[in-house]
Amino acid sequence: MYRDILLCVDLEDESSWRKALPTAVEYCRAFGSRLHVLTVIPDFGLSMVSQYFPEDYEAKLLEQAGARLHELVREQVPEEVKVQHIVAQGTIYHEIIQAAEQVDADLIVMASHRPELEDYLIGPNATRVVRHCSRSVLVVRN
Asked: Which domains does the chain have, with CATH numbers?
């Protein structure tokens, strides 16, 4: 039923993958799907802010994120599951939707936490992905 599954993880927050990753792996096993594991490095937003960082800071950050993502997958995903690693940079929900389109994902798997007051004002990424994406989204509650 699902050929390509996109799993979204935050490398700084274990709760973003602790339940979602095993769920995605089980779906991959059940359907023989490919797993695309995505992490997004948020952009600084203002060029004024980025001027305070070293010139090659973004490249190093992306490289480190890629290494950490490979390590997470090596430790947590069984070898029989085919995996593609994706590191993106930008607005989190936008990059998730864009990655889902690029890999032609049939399903997006992501974690969500209990909404806090600030989430009602700004909106969590899972809510935005569900609202704006044309793909199926499985939100795994923590």
From this structure: 4-141 (3.40.50.620)
Q: Which residue has the higher pLDDT, 52 or 87?
A: 87
Helix, strand or coil for residue 74?
Answer: helix
Q: Is 38 helix (H, G, I), strand (E, B) or coil?
A: strand
Q: How many CB atoms are closer than 10 A to CB 18?
A: 14
Listed range (16-30, 34-48, 70-84) with the worst mean pLDDT = 34-48
Question: Coil, helix or strand for 42?
Answer: coil
Identify whether the C-beta of residue 128 lies closer than 8 Å to the C-beta of residue 116: no
Give the C-alpha separation, 20 to 68, whole Å: 18
CA 121 to centroid of chain Cα atoms: 22
Angle at which helices 92-102 and 125-132 pack, to 10 degrees? Answer: 40
| C-alpha pair distances (Å), 3 with each of 18, 106, 112, 139 | 23, 6, 23, 18
**49 pLDDT more than 90:** no
Nearest to 140 by CA among 96, 100, 116, 110: 110
